[in-house]
Amino acid sequence: MHNIGITHRDLKPENVLLKDDEVRICDVGSSKILDQKPSRMNTPYVVSRYYRAPELLLASHHYGFEIDIWSVGCMIFEFITKKPMFPGDTEGL
Fold first, then answer.
1. Which homologous superfamily is 2-81 in?
2. Does the active-site annotation cover 10?
3. Which of 92, 84, 12 is nearest to 57 (CA)?
4. Is the separation of the CB atoms in 31 and 8 below 8 Å?
């Protein structure tokens, strides 16, 4: 997705499927081509709370594909340890 300019923006274990030994990504409803122009802003309220990158927690409107990579790192930790890396129950810092 990143190679063609699309960011998923809601990667979480529920959106990662295995089929025939292949990883498939589903639920692309929040996906978009990110506009990196300073005059345009993206919404910071994306990605499920446990997998949200620091720039989104700090309400940045300018972010890139890195938010998906952060989510993948959080998921890998959870797959290994069987518990979320950053559990939280509020939106605030």
1. Transferase(Phosphotransferase) domain 1 (1.10.510.10)
2. yes
3. 92
4. yes
pTM over 0.90: no
Q: Is 59 exposed, middle or buried (0-12, 13-18, 19+ CB in 10 A)?
A: exposed
Cα–Cα distance for residue pair 18/24, rounded to 1 Å: 6
In order along its 93 residues, the chain shows pLDDT tens digits of: 888 889 999 999 999 999 899 999 999 988 888 766 666 677 777 778 889 899 888 888 888 899 999 999 999 999 999 999 988 776 655
Dist CA 16 CA 58 (whole Å): 26
Q: Which of 10, 20, 35, 89 is catalytic?
A: 10
**β-bridge mates for residue 16, sequence order:** 25
Chain centre to alpha carbon of residue 78 = 14
Helix residue spans in 1-93 (DSSP H): 54-57, 66-81
